[in-house]
Amino acid sequence: MTRFSGETALGLAWATAFISSLVVLFVGEVLGQAPCMLCWFQRAFMFPLAVVLGLGFWWQDRRVGRYGIALALGGAAFAFWHMGLYVGLIPQQIQPCTASGPSCTDANQVILGIPIPLMALTAFTLIAILSALSLKEIQK
Description:
Order of helices and strands: EHHHEEHE
CATH topology: Bromodomain-like
């Protein structure tokens, strides 16, 4: 029987948030792709996740998973809305990215053939699940 500890789940949640933050910075700063308005909101949730989960992991505070869940669900809500815009489920009248700045739905929202909103939604969902798992011991 293999044990999947809360500490392992927390470490994986932090690693996901940290790598996601680095990827976002690489896309923006190295590739020069300006983020759309919804990307900025998603960044506002992802960057603190890397710090909060990292400190919780360092200090071995397993209760930090509660904050990971809250931040990840907030970011996932924006990523879900962004994905809805990207696939055309949300009418153009309520799209926030049409007023100013880069478009939320054009071709620059794809990296390696994967839409950025889908990557963000996946990362936030994974972080939320791992943060929840970090709150209790799981046995497989």
